[in-house]
Amino acid sequence: MRGGCGGPAVVRAGSGGPPLHRAAAAAAAAAAAAGGRLVGMEHIRTTKVEQVKLLDRFSTSNKSLTGTLYLTATHLLFIDAHQKETWILHHHIASVEKLALTTSGCPLVIQCKNFRTVHFIVPRERDCHDIYNSLLQLSKQAKYEDLYAFSYNPKQNDAERLRGWELIDLAEEYKRMGVPNSNWQLSDANREYKICETYPRELYVPRIASKPIIVGSSKFRSKGRFPVLSYYHQSKEAAICRCSQPLSGFSARCLEDEHLLQAISKANPANRYMYVMDTRPRHRVQSWWATQKDIGRIIVRISSKIWNDEKIRESDEKKRLNAMANRAAGKGYENEDNYSNIRFQFVGIENIHVMRSSLQKLLEVNGTKGLSVNDFYSGLESSGWLRHIKAVMDAAIFLAKAIEAESASVLVHCSDGWDRTSQVCSLGSLLLDPYYRTIRGFMVLIEKDWISFGHKFSERCGHLDGDPKEVSPVFTQFLECVWHLTEQFPQAFEFNEAFLLQIHEHIHSCQFGNFIANCQKEREELKLKEKTYSLWPFLLDDQKKYLNPLYSSQSQKLAVLEPNTVSFNFKFWRNMYHQFDRTLHPRQSVFNIIMNMNEQNKQLEKDIKDLESQIKQRKTKQTDGILSKELLNSVRPESPALKATLSLKEQALLPVNNVLRTIEGSSPADNRYSEYADEFSKAEPAVVSLEYGVARMTC
Amino acid sequence: MEFAEMIRTGQAQAELLRGPEEPPLRGTLCITGHHLLLSPGPQATPDLWLLLLRNVDSIEKRVAGDSGTITLRCKDLRVLQLDIEGVEATLDIARSIEALSSLESVITSFPFFYRPKGLRLGDAWHFHPPECYYKRVARETNAWRLSEANEDFSLCPSYPRAVIVPRAVDDSAVARSARFRQGGRFPVLSYFHAPSGTVLLRAGQPLTGPQKRRCSEDEELLRAVLAGARPGARGFIVDTRSPQAAKQARMTGGGTEAKAAYPGWKRLHRPLERGRPLQESFVRLVEACGDLEQSMDRWLNRLESCRWLSHVKETLSTACLAAQSMEQEGACILVHGAEGTDSTLLITSLAQLILDPLSRTMAGFQELIEREWVQAGHPFQLRCAHSAFSHARPKHEAPTFLLFLDCVWQLGRQFPLSLEFGEGMLLALFDHAYASPFGTFLCNNEKER
């Protein structure tokens, strides 16, 4: 307790290896060493290489640590001379690269999906080649059954595992929202995944929507993803619904789909109109126009339609032209003429390919050594990453406002309704409902809007060796939006940054079954609930680490978050993208101090209670009034509560001392300064630049 | 000087808009010699709203119909809008504010009239005289002495009366060294780092000129510094200009120390921006921050192109360089630029903040600012005459002090547990440096004060 705050013994939030998978990895490593039959062992040619150098990613002087590299069936492990271990899960590896041979050995650069980048130098080229080939194969599995989750065993029995899976119950969640009710009911239309393979079995639809209407609508919607309920706002009686784009064709319309939208609108007695949000930027929807080959034919048809239709002539012709061309391609958005009482809204979130290349650019920028402030900002700008984050946030805010201020139901869709739609629906619910800002509620939200509605986790995260064009950081963006909200509303969230980082870690780790496969149907076929474990109980067990000490549940009741999205409220998320670059981190954590103080307060309260009960006991024992007075006096000086207060005072002073050591740079753990000193003793100190992490400047 | 002459109209009905967050305020507007008052009437809760006229940076008037609008942009970066009834009244008030906010003479400025309750004049002045700091130094070492060579400000008008110099150097040598340095700013002790026994010095540039003049007393002074630290100690001269700029300065009589003349000292060039470019950077930053509607890309672009954060980074890394070499190399540091009153002070004060835990306390930080900025002769009057909104052509303005505050804030972000004071302290210092009822940041140096 005394060594306390800021000391190296305390595990900091958002840094350090995640102990969860670390322990597991140790077990796996042990199993591998014992000759256990694990998947992937046949790919391993070399299990141990000595004298490997691990380069510091941002050091300008090529500082390195020397140690031994181990290859297990599931992890790559580097143990340096100080016995510090670096674990890298094979599934986390995004790319392995062998660079040209140098005098000191063969460089091997590994980039991970959790934004760790390691740069090894292996002394012998043969070893390097072996490891390179092994990693190439181990990091890209061909079958689901080869993923880590199927061999991961946290020593739980079947009953415990099952309980873990039952922890989050979506039926329970819909009940919490207040459905089924007089307007909304559970539909059994998709019970056998007959209507839509990528939806869950249980779907909630307006009570007045009959099964033929649903079936009809699903035929009109891309991939059969017809409009269903995502979130129900009990007090406003408004709903967030989601679907995919309509296959409206050139002049096609679908009466059932129009009926279904009417039904959603009518299910909300508070407001007679509803919004349809197309989350795609207008120009993208319209770009179908360009792909159309027989433009001439369309123009003829369109112009005849224009002259026939008074209403269209009045409105912006160009817009209509494009929209209709769009419909000619068979995809697009709803024809406004066919839907009444509906307000259409476009919000410009770009598609997965734009997002993927944006993240790629961002990573290139922040991986640059000795980055200048200007290069950082121009790189950040040209990557467009924060622009995309802001777009997602703005869309969610529009959604929340429509419900909160206008009590209007909103139907959200993009193209297929599993990427941008998931982002907007889940963020919108998060803004509206304080429950989703608790640890458990956040898990429910992810289970509902992401997992059950078929966000294609396996394809987006590249779990298997598949199409690289399907990989996209859609979920990462969602987490980043949540992080921005936690920065703007530090008291609104029960969880902290570490929780978000841990979830991000596990969508890629394939250690738990939750995020494996692309939809519920696939998951059932894989028997994930029988063969793998759920992540959530493990996070709940570790809850202490993920608690936000500033959270106040009282002030949050019924509070809708209204974030400000002025451009300068968005900043680079250092702890995500530089999570493993310890040298770039600030070395003082207010979080630890607050957590320690919380802990002590709890201890103190407990002490007080103990003392009070002791006093009571003695009082009842000794009826003699005088004696008890003496007793009280004698108790006081040694009272543990007092002692605790004293130690609290010490504690309060301590950090200051620690701090000073750190800032002076004399702490041995702080390698940045010593590195700096090395450089300084060289002949030309004029070239020394103290790499004051540019990333830090942004916050 | 009569203030009454400048006040065209006593009062007018007006409505004040203070930004989107706060409700508008309606009431009677008054102008006094130093203040703009708005009295919303007897029953209102905030009974008086008050603005120091010295705070006004730029004023813009617009007349429409029979009412007018005045937009005041303050030095503390506030933007206020006054809606005034009557065209005549608007013009009069605008003219009065214009006249009163740009008073040239220091004597007529408000701090001379300001008498806060409970404080007597003379109290708390010389809270932190140089003698005080010398006592602290003397406890650790006896290689330094307090020299009163500048008693009548004849050697250096921008130094305080007493400065700390090496014990081995007498006052006459000091005087000759002063003649060799620009502005008479001979090398003096800025900070003594007890754990490593090294010192931080600051000075003006040596007047080597095109003939490469030398000054044996100046050389002797620096030799004495090294001898006083510890045998075999090395020193670094941190020049805050680029090598080219330093060479060019020779043409106008300045220059840098010649390598051969100062054995044991090594010269480092760490170019820092100053003056005009810094002010422009500041103006562009404030412009970028003022636009709430811009897209993300535009914002990042403007943030980048204003280069303000680059300046912050350069300054911090130079200060770290100085601090590191003192702490870990055991080297003495002499910092100078051209005049030694701007970027020099930035570096010396930040290096102290990094090295000295005491200066990170509330009292220590105040002492640091008093010693390294006020007494060391940072020309506050010239540098802070106008802030980012002024249309006046900038002459000597530069947000050097703001840059210092920003650097401290950045340190606070990285080491949230190390500074005893918070952001509020830095903001308050910024406000007071630009427009204050107090006299601390008035004038350019001790002599004028």
Automatic annotation (TrEMBL), chain B:
In which domain of life is the source organism classified? Eukaryota
Which SUPFAM superfamilies has this protein been placed in? (Phosphotyrosine protein) phosphatases II (SSF52799), PH domain-like (SSF50729)
Taking every annotated instance into account, which residue ranges of this chain make up the domain Myotubularin phosphatase? 124-449
**Cellular-component GO terms for this entry:** cytoplasm
A molecular-function term among this protein's GO annotations = protein phosphatase binding
Give TM segment ranges.
Answer: none
Q: Which InterPro entries match?
A: Myotubularin (IPR030564), Myotubularin-like_Pase_dom (IPR010569), PH-GRAM_MTMR6-9 (IPR048994), PH-like_dom_sf (IPR011993), Prot-tyrosine_phosphatase-like (IPR029021)
* UniProt GO BP: negative regulation of autophagy; phosphatidylinositol dephosphorylation
What's the name of the protein?
Myotubularin phosphatase domain-containing protein
